[in-house]
Amino acid sequence: MVASQILETRMSQLNRRQLALGYLALLVTALLPLAVIRHLPLHDYPNHLARMHILVEAGSNPVLNRYYEIDWQILPNLLMDISVPLLAHLVPVEDATRLFVALVMILMTSGTVALFAALHGRLSWWPLLAFLFLYSRVMLFGHLNYLAGVGLFLWAFAAWIFWRDRTAIFRVPVFALVATVLFFSHLYALGLYGICVAGFELAHFRARYAGLRDLLREGAVVAAQFVIPIYLLVAESPTAGSATVFLYDPLDQFLRNKVRAVYQLTANYYSTFDRATFVLLAGGFAAAVALGWVAIDRRMWLPLVLLVIAFLIMPNQLFASNLADFRLPVALVLVLIASSAPVRLPFARLVMAALAALLVLRMGLITERWSDFDAVYDRYLEAIQQVPEGSRLITAVAEPSPELPQLEPTLMYVNALAVLERSAFEPAVFADRGKQPIAVTEACREAYEELWRVWSSPAAALTDLAPSLKRTGGNGSDDMLFAYDYLLLLYPEGDANPAPEVLEQIETTPLFHLYRVVEHASRRTGQKSAFDSC
User: Fold this and answer.
1) Distances (CA, A) of 21 to 27, 125, 342, 346, 348
2) Could you give the CA distance from residue 423 to residue 6 in angstroms, rounded to a whole number?
3) Residues 122, 252: one domain?
């Protein structure tokens, strides 16, 4: 008997060691693109990097402080803005931001493992499937605070399940703190946590046929943890002012976007391969459940159904944030992985090997694609070294020509790197007061807000570069270009200078042109422009 128990303990330790080594091997594989690529081509990443630089340099860079200021408020999306400046005390801000991306992946995968262990009471290779969904389009778009919040939500939900039998005196303060941390991480993470905890508790009580009194008592414990975050959102955060700002697309577009949002779980850069991967994973999982090879924890059916309903009814824009519904499937698939477990999966070792090979192949393709994109960033960074420190840079975007290589993600925010490299003013940087912890200074605020209003249409950008380069359209501002020192033109048509009388060509590449803005004779009319103070 004793010998049997000793053998069982040793086997358990061996299995845990194997799983730990397997997790580390998959993590190293997943982090490979971050380690070997110089510039992470995530869509919003240059903007995030610029914001981190401003936060770190606050108070010590007088040139940068002319344009930007720190504006800490109670915002439900601050995890990156708090973490990266702390890491920047140890490493340069670029490395600190890259480490945060790695932390996002660690939180997402380890959170899936933790939730699986809390639900099933054991460890398994199964939740390691989460690695296959790290590089979704949500990651490639650079929604880093959201994805980090998803990882924290998985850990928080796992903790709730693990400690759900503890006393209310223990759970209320502990999980009130947890919910508050989720709030400051990302509002979406708090919402996901609330949906899953509510669904789990309702399913749990239904299974145990608990009485109304027990239901009300437990419901009070569940609700109590959300009092502080709800108060912060409603009474203290400027985010509450955007609660009524949401947008539904027309029905046909709305339905197409839902399909795309699901497909984006495996969508990277090679459409045929990405579609095949999606069909393989989704079809394989559905078949395994139908055949009884994989089972879903019965307590998780209701939370999963509630998440699906939330996804189906969620608008494209919520709280003035775009792609709200597009983000949810990433969290949904990780919860689904953690909620399910193999029962009698045939050829389990072969399946594990095939999925590991799929991950290695996907990481290789992503690394290759990112390596190609590195050269574009290098050329841009080399070009802006010609821009004097503290210059003001404006960006116009033309429609990409069909003859240009279809590089994804786009160059839309590459201009933000001028803030990092040259302490420049770039009004496309995310610095909306009440949305980020940085803001444009009072002197430049009107220029910043006006630019977003009249230069936000990519198709109109080149049209706006009329020979006189005067603003028209009844908005009351003209000669806006001349408030800036340099113009970055993305996706130009050919090498020609669109307005040689006022633009001096500095750099010409197939994907971007860089111009110095020359003072124009029509610039000074005796009337002070709203852009002169910046």
Assistant:
1) 10, 11, 20, 23, 18
2) 64
3) yes
The range of the structural domain enclosing residue 311 comes to: 94-346
Q: Are residues 396 and 479 in the same domain?
A: yes
Q: Are 277 and 358 in contact (CB under 8 A)?
A: yes
What single DSSP character describes residue 436?
B
Q: What is the pLDDT of residues 17-43, one digit of tens each?
A: 888 999 999 999 999 999 999 999 998
DSSP state of 323: S
C-alpha to C-alpha distance for 219 and 211, rounded to whole angstroms:
12
Q: Is residue 86 part of a domain?
A: no
Question: What does the pLDDT look like over 215-272, one tens digit per residue?
Answer: 788 888 899 999 999 999 998 888 777 666 677 778 888 888 888 889 999 988 888 9
Helices in 340-392 by DSSP H: which ranges?
348-384
- DSSP codes joined into one string, 270-320: -HHHHHHHHHHHHHHHHHHHHTTSEEE-GGGHHHHHHHHHHHHH--SEETT
List of E strands, 427-502:
438-440, 486-490
In sequence order, which residues have a C-beta less than 8 Å from that of residue 504 and are 6 or more positions away? 515, 516, 517, 518
User: Is 144 found in the same domain as 212?
Assistant: yes
Question: What tokens were used for 66?
Answer: 């002319």
- H or E segment at 395? strand 393-397
Contact 383/488 with Cβ under 8 angstroms? no
Chain segment 160-198, per-residue pLDDT in tens: 999 988 998 999 999 999 999 999 999 999 999 999 999
What local confidence, expressed as pLDDT, does residue 468 receive? Answer: 37
Number of folded domains that form the chain = 2
Which residues are bridge partners to 296 per DSSP?
340
My answer on whether 57 and 132 are in the same domain is: no
Question: Which phi and psi (to 5°) does residue 440 adopt?
Answer: -75, 140
The verdict on 293 and 435 lying in the same domain is no
Residue 472 in tokens: 């028209």
Q: What pTM, to 2 d.p., does this model score?
A: 0.89
